[in-house]
């Protein structure tokens, strides 16, 4: 069967012979978008974070066949080496990565997280559910679904805070 | 491009490098916080890791695991699997390895698909047209077994541990010192099995071309990885090429080749097409390496003034059958603190568990924090401030060998670190409370041995005055791309934009690889030597001595003459080759890196939760090549320490030893919210005995001690001692009563 979906603003047709193909493997193996990484294939590490219709999800936990007509944004859709997104540039400046393997997921996740925040979503650590403030603890809580074994967490928080402040 | 003209420089590190080369250079890019040159690729998803590129016609492999701790696999439902959709091969080959190679092993680990030493051991490989088909078929595999799990060694009585003669040491009479001590500590501590848990699972994509094998792999040490893979396959190392331009974390877990490299190579050979194997996360946990659990007995004998008369550090660890590696827990204990009476003990159990191997700072990562727990207990017993106790016990020379230290900055680290942290504000044990939270501070010394390994590199200086650094060194997140670029740029007087660094290809000059915190110092020294070979040639072309010439911004300056490099090169391409070897300075002095770590914690009296409020550390580890990447290495190392202190623990099933929590949901590496502000300070430092750059290892030192500081802070907060890592909620609640 053919699945048609919009990836990074471009309509793509995915010939799918096997319904077991996850969205993650479809991106990596069938659509030539290996920027999204596979760390656990179990929704535990966040390395495969992509945006589905604007919301961040783990691409390993969903099947490609479920996404007819959906809009997917991957790391490749946020910026390129020649034209970095503000978050991508901030991650470089603050050294928000070391090995770089979790980094695409961190950046996609942070991009969506900042949008969630701007829409007023509270988190588990928000003191005021109606008007959360994006302090470091909020960033840390909201980014805890993305593991980084090199453990660049403090630098990741710095990069996100700086971007949030400059965009706000 | 013209044929390069080659110049070579080799250095065996027999004497200290008194003249500091980088004090004479002018470019000013070394020791600057350069952004990682490969950063743009990593943040855009365009850096290609092992499993990110599949050649056309790639088939996919998935391993079948042994469901028993001990025994034999005598057969498999191969015909049934072979008939499943897309299945191309079901492979049980005598060349398959039983467990990964140890770091720098350079030859194959034990091989064969039949005898089983641990639950989860790969015993067959299913290859199919697609990933999904391979996975499905492998999960339908039914190995025929002779199950001897009832005879498996999962835990041994202490009497049954091996005591290798070469790993014991004693001086003086510790028993007597303990009897005569004004204050003594004699305690047993335990640390659990742990796992590297790099974010990128081990992966290999292999293909053969005219009898030559190429593997895209996720490995740390390509020189020995090639030798290991060639030996496993029974072919010449000249026929093997490994590509690892980006490695998604290693931490020692990718030092040696693993199942996927050998499996993919065998399958690709059999099928005549490329084969990709990315280990599933549970294979990574079960079938690659882990850090051994340890039992450690510490004895400290101190006089009334807190000065140590004796130290005993004995460790009981486990190892794979037949393996010479065992976690060198006591590695820093012969020289960290003074004391004329000393016992070092090392005992090894051969267990039917996932094979132990090197994990970030093997030895000191778990040995140092435990010594530091005992020192904290001694400080309390002696009524001394913990920092003061350590200051009183810094030896003037290596107390076990009488050799001088090349550099010992422990006192500076302790004093400056304490000041920076605000250690003077430390409460009395159990005395500070904020609502349900008990607040405490703890500290620990950090120490890690420093070494140099043989390493080679080349720099190609092109006619346009740009340079390309080439070595088979890897960047596993450590910053190799950044620092090697900076070293070459500084030594050749080039802006960093004119230097490209190419790594991770075994066809390039063989380096030390990434491991043991020697990578930056070893590979960096070889790049420096290559640059010096080029400088000598450039000086000759300038008609002056190399030390009369300044290289800056792509120009050579001597006296009142300035010439641009393209002019000086006159269309020639120059190739500088550098090689460093360790020499006498590895033997004549005790080399180590030093630090002091501090932690503040809040412990909930209701839930037993430990929250870290802040961590701080001061380190002395020679010249800092890039303070930005160095700081990240230290942060990462310290957060490894958080995991060790509070959350990380491999649960081995007591029935068959299998790795129960074999995924990232159940093996708890620290997450973002677990991590507080971390303050890192580097002391200005040089070590002329270390290498010509006077730089030393960093990434491992940072995780030696952190767990000690945290657990000592918990003791300070609660007034209770915790002698078993990790200090989880259940243990805290039980202690608080």
From TrEMBL, chain B:
Residues 44-149 form the Aldehyde oxidase/xanthine dehydrogenase a/b hammerhead domain. InterPro entries: Ald_Oxase/Xan_DH_a/b, Ald_Oxase/Xan_DH_a/b_sf, Ald_Oxase/xanthine_DH-like, AldOxase/xan_DH_MoCoBD1, AldOxase/xan_DH_MoCoBD2, AldOxase/xan_DH_Mopterin-bd_sf. One of its GO terms (molecular function) is oxidoreductase activity. Transmembrane segments: none annotated. This is Xanthine dehydrogenase.
């Amino acid at each position: 069967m053919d699945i048609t979906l919009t990836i990074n603003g471009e309509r793509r047709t995915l010939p799918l012979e096997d319904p077991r193909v996850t969205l993650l493997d479809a991106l990596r193996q069938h659509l030539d978008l290996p920027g999204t990484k596979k760390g656990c294939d179990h929704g535990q590490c966040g390395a495969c974070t992509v945006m589905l219709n604007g919301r961040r999800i783990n691409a390993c936990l969903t099947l490609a066949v479920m996404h007819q007509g959906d809009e997917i944004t991957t790391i490749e859709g946020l910026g390129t080496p020649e034209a970095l997104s503000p978050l991508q540039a901030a991650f470089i400046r603050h050294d928000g990565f070391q090995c770089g393997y979790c980094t695409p997921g961190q950046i996609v996740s942070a991009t969506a997280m900042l949008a969630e925040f701007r829409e007023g979503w509270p988190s588990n650590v928000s003191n005021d559910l109606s008007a959360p403030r994006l302090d470091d603890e909020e960033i840390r809580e909201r980014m805890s679904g993305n593991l980084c074994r090199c453990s660049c967490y403090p630098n990741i928080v710095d990069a996100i805070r700086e971007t949030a402040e400059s965009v706000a | 491009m013209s044929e390069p003209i080659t110049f070579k420089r080799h250095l065996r590190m027999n004497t200290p490098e008194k003249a500091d080369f980088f004090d004479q250079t002018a470019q000013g890019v070394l020791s600057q916080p350069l952004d990682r040159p490969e950063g743009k690729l990593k943040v855009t998803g365009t850096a290609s890791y092992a499993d990110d590129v599949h050649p056309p016609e790639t088939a996919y492999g998935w391993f079948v695991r042994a469901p028993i701790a001990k025994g034999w696999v005598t057969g498999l439902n191969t015909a049934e699997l072979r008939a499943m959709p897309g299945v191309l091969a079901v492979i049980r080959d005598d060349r398959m390895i039983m467990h990964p190679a140890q770091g720098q092993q350079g030859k194959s680990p034990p091989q064969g698909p039949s005898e089983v030493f641990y639950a989860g051991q790969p015993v067959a490989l299913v290859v199919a047209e697609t990933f999904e088909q391979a996975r499905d078929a492998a999960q339908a595999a039914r190995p025929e077994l002779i199950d001897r799990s009832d005879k498996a060694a999962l835990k041994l009585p202490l009497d049954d541990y091996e005591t290798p003669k070469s790993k014991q040491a004693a001086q003086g009479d510790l028993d007597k010192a303990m009897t005569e001590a004004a204050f003594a500590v004699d305690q047993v501590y335990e640390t659990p099995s742990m796992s590297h848990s790099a974010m990128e699972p081990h992966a290999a994509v292999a293909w053969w071309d005219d009898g030559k094998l190429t593997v895209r792999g996720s490995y740390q040490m390509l020189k020995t990885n090639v030798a290991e893979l060639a030996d496993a396959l029974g072919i010449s190392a000249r026929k093997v090429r490994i590509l690892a331009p980006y490695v998604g974390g290693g931490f020692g877990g990718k030092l040696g080749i693993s199942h996927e490299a050998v499996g993919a190579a065998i399958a690709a050979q059999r099928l005549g097409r490329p084969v990709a194997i990315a280990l599933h996360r549970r294979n990574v946990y079960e079938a690659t390496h882990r850090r051994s659990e340890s039992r450690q007995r510490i004895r400290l004998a101190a006089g009334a003034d807190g000065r140590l008369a004796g130290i005993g550090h004995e460790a009981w660890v486990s190892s794979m059958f037949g393996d010479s590696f065992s976690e060198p827990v006591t590695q820093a204990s012969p020289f960290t603190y003074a004391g004329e009476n000393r016992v070092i003990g090392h005992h090894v159990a051969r267990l039917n568990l996932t094979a132990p191997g090197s994990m970030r700072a093997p030895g000191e990562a778990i040995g140092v924090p435990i010594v530091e727990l005992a020192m904290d207990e001694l400080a309390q017993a002696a009524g001394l401030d913990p920092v003061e106790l350590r200051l009183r016990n810094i030896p003037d020379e290596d107390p076990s060998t009488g050799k001088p230290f090349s550099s010992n900055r422990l006192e500076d680290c302790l004093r400056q670190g304490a000041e920076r942290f605000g250690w003077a504000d430390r409460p009395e044990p159990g005395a500070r409370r904020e609502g349900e939270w008990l607040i405490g501070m703890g500290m620990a010394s950090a120490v890690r041995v420093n070494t140099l390994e043989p390493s080679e590199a080349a720099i190609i200086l092109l006619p346009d005055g740009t340079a390309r650094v080439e070595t088979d060194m890897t960047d596993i997140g450590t910053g190799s791309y950044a620092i090697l670029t900076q070293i070459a740029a500084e030594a050749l007087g080039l802006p960093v934009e004119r230097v490209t660094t190419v790594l991770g290809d075994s066809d390039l000059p063989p380096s030390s690889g990434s491991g043991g915190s020697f990578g930056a110092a070893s590979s960096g020294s070889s790049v420096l030597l290559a640059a010096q070979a080029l400088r000598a040639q450039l000086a000759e072309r300038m008609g002056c001595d190399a030390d009369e010439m300044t290289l800056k911004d792509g120009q050579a300056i001597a006296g009142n003459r300035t010439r641009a490099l393209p002019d000086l090169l006159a269309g020639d391409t120059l190739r500088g080759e550098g090689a460093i070897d360790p020499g006498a300075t590895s033997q004549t002095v005790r080399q180590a890196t030093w630090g002091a770590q501090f932690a503040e914690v809040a412990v909930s009296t209701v839930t037993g939760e430990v929250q870290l409020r802040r961590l701080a550390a001061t380190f002395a580890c020679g010249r800092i090549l890039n303070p930005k990447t160095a700081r990240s290495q230290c942060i990462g190392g310290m957060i490894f320490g958080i995991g060790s202190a509070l959350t990380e623990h491999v649960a081995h099933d007591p029935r068959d030893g299998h790795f129960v929590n074999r995924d990232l949901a159940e093996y708890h590496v620290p997450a973002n919210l677990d991590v507080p502000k971390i303050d890192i300070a580097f002391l200005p430092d040089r070590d002329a005995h270390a290498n010509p750059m006077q730089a030393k290892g960093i990434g491992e030192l940072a995780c030696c001690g952190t767990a000690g500081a945290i657990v000592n802070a918990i003791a300070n907060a609660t007034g209770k001692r915790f002698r078993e890592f990790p200090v989880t909620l259940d243990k805290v609640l039980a202690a608080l009563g």
